[in-house]
Amino acid sequence: MKDKFKIMLDEQTYTSKPTDAGGIVNRIVKNPTDLTIEELILAIEQGRTVLPAFLGHAYNGKIRKSKECWSSQQLVFLDFDNESEVFDPLPEKPNNKKKIKDIHMTYDEAIEHFKDIALFLYKSFSCTDDHPKLRVVIALDRVVYNRDIIRNIFTRFKQLYPYIDSKCLEESRLFYGGTDAYRFDFDNRLNVDQFLEQDEGKKGLHYILSYSNNIPPFCLPSIQGKSIQTTDNNIEYIINRDVSYLQSVIKPVAISLSQYDLYEYLYKIDFSTLLGVNHKHCCMYHNDNSPSALIKVKEDTGDYMYHCFGCGFSGNIITCIEKMFEDRQIEIRRGQVVELLKEIYMIDDQLSVWGEQQKRELESNIALLLSRELEELEPNLHKLIVRNVPNLVALHNVAIQNITSENYTDNKGNVLFFKDLKSITVALGKSSVDKVAKDINFYTYLGMLNKINPKELPKSLRKKAVEFQLKNHYKYQKNFYSFPSYTISVRRSAEQRAVEWKEKGYTKKELTREMIYRGHGEEVADTVYPQMKGEKFSETNVAVADELVKIGLSLIEQKGWTTEKEIQENLHLHWKGQSIYKAGMIKTIRAEFLESYGLVKKKLNKELSERLGIDVPTNGKGNPCYPQIIYKAD
């Protein structure tokens, strides 16, 4: 099996038992890793420390080695130290205990005992022939996202092996590396439901183990024969897409809706029953010991919204389900969430073929752009694109009209559409091809539209692109685009880009590949301008940029501040149009210049003028002027 398991892994290697546990903890919580079984064995034999769960929930703003940060787990490590504790009273410590050798499982016995159950076992650094210390690694048949279930699994193992180290059965336990890994069948998996099953008519692990027939009764509460989580919510059922169970709880009434009515219908569903919570409850998106979340109707819209006063998360029914999957590192598209909700609530809109599904995905994006969500949850992005929403919607409709076949997708499965800029300009009802091109670059920078590198196109499309280029004598090939699903992660990234756009002082009119390259690096520049990938800047641009930087630094060194205009005036070029060229170049290098040298661009004010000793200039009428100045950040 080539399954990968999500764990936390230390990057440091050791040849003996580590003595710097604090350093390991600081490193390991920052390093979630996906490993195959063989990769995990290699890491352990290199002496690297493993935490077999994924820590994905922040606690008090940080990822820590604590049960509160536990997010999911599929691997269980059993620690057979073959020791027991006995009382060893001391005068100053009457309750003192010490560990003594107490052999319950030798290395050879473990190999025989776990051959049909475990993935592998290995010796700890302190293992000796006369005192075996080993760890057995077992994989569950599915990833567990509910902490109560993993605790029940730990309890069951403790019942089976009362002599194992109890500390190994903790959600955030560290396991140091070791030696001599013994590999079993990598297809071995422990069936969670059978393992936790009390019914004596079903074979669980306690039937496989020869000496475990007298295990104390243990079970989970059951509904309709299903083992369920002990917390009062339906997260596990939603994540596992158990539509039949969810329908048994919700009891939906079948309904047929047009595609245009679908989203308004979903927004107005009281989804507390779906989530399995009261309107006021402990938040399901962070560790919450007292009710801090609620679901209520917005008076102005009639929409049901989830909001937590603890972690600050807000969302409607679609966003809430989407976040459940995202928190568990399960990839899901926004349109797939809508399809799941349609199935649960028995909503029929007669869409089934691939092209219709792609159309639905694009319409989901349109619905988001036209909804209230962006304004409420991504305010910087909303403020930046609010005037562009009609154009973005129109561009989505261009994509919908150009859906052809399932083969025309990008490498992430998003439907491709291809139009030359002139045709797109006409389709958008615009007159300026140049302005439309700048709009498209703007959307691509935000990550709300993808430009496709011609080299990544299917052969048939690449051929069409080349033919179109040659026929029209264009420098670049025909443009191909795709829209990503506007998921939480895409919107979050776009929100950050919107903040950076404002901080760096970008405008659509000034945006160029060189500006993006200097401000964000080559990878981002190639994303926004894929057909220009690998192109070098002109020698003139490089020389002029370097000179502008030298002049700016020199002026700041001399008097503590300068302005863009002053920098330009101190650079003398000898060709027609130099003023426009210099103004463009200073804008191109602005973000890189400020960030590289720790500078700030800010409008002059009284406090700044006094601190930097600047005489506030006046205009022809004697009124003070407050230009934008550049100076060294504090």
TrEMBL record:
Sequence ranges assigned to domain Zinc finger CHC2-type in this UniProt record: 279-342
InterPro entries, A to Z: DNA_primase_Znf_CHC2, Znf_CHC2
Designated name of the protein: Zinc finger CHC2-type domain-containing protein
Taxonomic source organism: Paenibacillus brasilensis
Record lineage: Bacteria, Bacillati, Bacillota, Bacilli, Bacillales
